[in-house]
Design brief:
single chain; mainly alpha; 67% helix; 0% strand; globular; HDOD domain-containing protein; RNase_Y/CdgJ
Length: 298
């Protein structure tokens, strides 16, 4: 005989417990983030941390020699890789592979398709980076946009894992009403994936930009002013991926009434996005290496 349905408060408590039990980021990745947050960090400082971890060293070298970076020559030295990619890019690379390796397993996906989810996430990351380039964001910062796009929907993973049936219903409700998924999540679960995403960011002590991105990528106007450009760009990239059905994270009907506001906030036109279609398709293929590297060591 089935038990009484869970209240929203009970569901929220279960998600909190699930996220609390998730493994922490590795000591090396935590140290990488710590070192990179210091204002005067040098490539040698970062090299000393990463070199102690042969797995992470291998990941960095595999990624820098992949088609994603399209370098003319093979790089076999970690120091050389850090100098060529930059401290910020290596930090993001370490973070993204660690997060995808931790949360990207097949058994994490019960209501969502894992492959479709990550294809969607790659598309948002690649488009966000392309838009950052279009906005003339400095090259060393553009990888921040890729990682933010890649990780933006992390909050959906615990929701679809803990409440598989309710999450299927939320996906169906969103499809039937042709409405945004966060609204259906609120109706079925009492909270949306943005709140779960923030809990994950708090658990892993991610920086403020990524934390607010996970929480507010459907409502970037609620983020602090310093992060609104990053989150607005990711929100636009997310809208693009949903409208063009590149992969799927279950949110096929974004709020079109918000698109004009987003474009104004970011300072772009819709044709800026549609003109990038072929570039984004090519870059998604190259960026698959992030998933491959993460899965090899998870």
């Amino acid at each position: 005989m089935p038990g009484a349905p869970l209240t929203n408060e009970q569901r929220f408590a279960l998600i909190q417990k699930y996220i609390e039990r998730m493994p922490s980021l590795s000591t090396t990745v935590t140290k990488v983030l710590e070192v990179c947050n210091r204002p005067n960090t040098s490539p040698n400082d970062l090299n000393r941390v990463i070199a102690l971890d042969p797995v992470l060293t291998g990941q960095v070298l595999k990624l820098i020699n992949s088609a994603y970076y399209s370098l003319p020559n093979q790089i076999s030295s970690l120091t050389r890789a850090i100098i060529m990619l930059g401290i910020n890019t290596v930090k993001n690379l370490a973070l993204s592979t660690a997060v995808v390796g931790s949360m990207g397993r097949e058994d994490s996906f019960r209501s969502l398709s894992m492959d479709a989810f990550w294809t969607h996430s790659l598309c948002v990351g690649v488009m966000a980076k392309a838009l950052a380039k279009l906005k003339k964001i400095p090259g060393m910062m553009q990888e921040e946009f890729f990682v933010a796009g890649l990780l933006h929907d992390l909050g959906k993973i615990p929701l679809n894992n803990c409440f598989a049936e309710e999450y299927r219903q939320a996906l169906e409700l969103s499809a039937i009403e042709q409405g945004p998924l966060p609204k259906a999540e609120e109706m079925l679960l009492g909270f949306d994936h943005g709140r779960a995403g923030k809990m994950i960011a708090d658990k892993w002590q991610l920086n403020q930009g990524l934390t607010e991105m996970l929480r507010f990528h459907h409502t970037p106007e609620k983020a602090s002013p310093d992060n609104q450009q990053l989150i607005g760009v990711v929100a636009l990239a997310n809208t693009y991926a949903n409208l063009f059905d590149v992969g799927s994270a279950g949110d096929r009907y974004p709020e079109m009434s918000r698109v004009d506001d987003l474009l104004t906030q970011v300072g772009l036109k819709w044709h800026d996005l549609s003109n990038l279609h072929s570039v984004v398709e090519q870059e998604i293929e190259k960026a698959q290496v992030f998933l491959q590297v993460a899965r090899e060591t998870s």
